[in-house]
Amino acid sequence: MQYRELGKTGEKVSQIGFGLMRLPVLNGDNTKIDTKKASEMLSYGIDNGINILDTGFDYHGNCLDENGGASEPFLSEFLDMGYREKVLISSKLPLYPINKKEDLDYYFNKQLERLNTDCIDIYMLHGIKTNLWGKLMFTGYLNEFLDNLLSEGKVKHIGFSHHGDYQLFQKVMNYYDKWEVVLTQMNYLDTQYKSGKKTIDYVGDNGIGNMIMEPLRGGTLVNNIPPKVQELMNTSDNIKSPIEWGLGYLWNMPHINCVLSGMSTLEQVKTNIEIANKAKPGYFTEEDNKILKKIINEFRHSSEISCTYCNYCMPCSHGVNIPKCFHEYNESKVFDKPDKISNQYFDVITEKSRADQCKNCAQCLEECPQDIDIMTELHKVEDYFKNTKH
Questions:
Q1: What is the pTM of this model?
Q2: Are 375 and 360 in contact (CB under 8 A)?
Q3: Using one digit for the tens of pLDDT, what is the confidence trace for 361-387?
Q4: How many C-beta atoms lie closer than 10 Å to residue 291's C-beta?
């Protein structure tokens, strides 16, 4: 495994980190982790060099559930098997339930209990967006809260994950002078999206740890690659698989320290580690960069809804399976097989979970890290499949 300095934190982290957001589950229930399979995956990852595990209060749960998701408690039980000293724990403060200063301490202490630790290595404010940042400012306590975590030794390094634009990013950066880690979304299709590559460069230039989420865009850069895109990928003498293109592009960027991957199977863990072991600086040649530009253009031509299937919009209060509806729609557009995908749409998505069940309540809009106009897109999906059904 290759390791990189995490900014000026003094920590050396594996260039591939394990995101605990998409662990295998039981019977399709996202709140029930298959602990046997997940433990096997984590054990293999750590034994083969991964030393940073990233979780969050609501991972494998609902961001509005005061009890949190299943990810943190699972991680605690797993680390008790003798792995705690081998890894860095990264977790995040949930921002949606924060309404007053007391909530900050309440949820942090709850996380200490859930993780069964007296110190979290990397602690981040989760999913900074304009409305959530405003709530934090309203408490009038954020600066003192963060200072206390550091001075009392309850947290080693403070940071935030960012889902807003570059203007908000600068505002957050200027607010607190002890930020050490920033987690942002980046992949080769989203270099100009929201805060974009400017954020990556700013963070790196200022010696702050640069961690990346959604490196494969929720799997859309890997699964069911359009034939024309695959043809372009195959023209490289150096890089072949879609996963290599996605991860290698990021590791080739000088300011990126760690790429988090939300792995769901042991095979994914093995594949990512194998690629990480060989993806050294210069892994991407000039010719590969030229090919990648063509790949990006072809992808953008093929796909319409920029959903990464992160499930932040779920559960829908009216039962719509939003990510699945978007997935089937994009599949049809990318592969230009409306009849086949239409049949699949009606087969795999129950009647009560389809796009036509959307009631325009708008509750999902604030949850989407991609700022997708979910209601408009669902109605587009509804019209599309209604007209292709046989």
A1: 0.79
A2: yes
A3: 988 888 887 788 999 999 999 998 887
A4: 20
% of the chain residues with pLDDT over 90: 59
Torsion of CA 293, 294, 295, 301, to 10 degrees: 110
Residue 347: phi and psi, rounded to 5, are -80, -45
- Beta strands 29-33 and 52-54 are unpaired
Region for 13 from its dihedrals, namely left if φ exceeds 0, alpha if ψ lies in -120 to 50, beta otherwise: beta
The C-alpha angle 50, 51, 55, rounded to 5 degrees, equals: 100
Average pLDDT of span 98-110? 94
256/17 Cα distance (integer angstroms)? 12
CA dist 369 and 126 (Å) reads 11
Q: Where are the beta strands (DSSP E) in the chain?
A: 3-5, 12-14, 16-19, 25-26, 29-33, 52-54, 88-93, 120-128, 155-162, 181-185, 209-213, 258-261
Strand, coil or helix: 158: strand
CA separation for the pair 118, 343 (Å, rounded) = 52
* Torsion, Cα of 58, 24, 164, 281 (10° steps): 130
Q: Is the pLDDT of residue 389 over 70?
A: no
Q: What span, in angstroms and rounded, lies between the C-alpha atoms of 13 and 156?
A: 14
Using only C-alpha atoms, what is the Rg of the chain? 21
Give residue 148's pLDDT.
97
pLDDT given at position 339:
57
What span, in angstroms and rounded, lies between the C-alpha atoms of 326 and 160? 28
Given a contact cutoff of 8 angstroms between Cβ atoms, the answer to whether 303 and 334 are in contact is yes
Q: Per-residue pLDDT averaged across 179-189, rounded?
A: 92
Alpha-carbon span 192 to 101, nearest angstrom = 35
| 12 neighbors 4 (Cβ within 8 angstroms) | yes
Percent of all residues in the chain with a pLDDT value above 70, rounded to a whole number: 95
pLDDT in tens, 144-160: 999 999 999 999 999 99
Tell me which residue of 138, 185, 186 sits closest to 162, measured CA to CA.
185
Q: 30: Cβ–Cβ under 8 A, 6 or more apart, which residues?
A: 60, 61, 311, 314
Average pLDDT of the chain to the nearest whole number? 89
Average pLDDT for residues 213-241, to the nearest whole number?
85
Calpha distance 383→30 (Å, rounded): 29
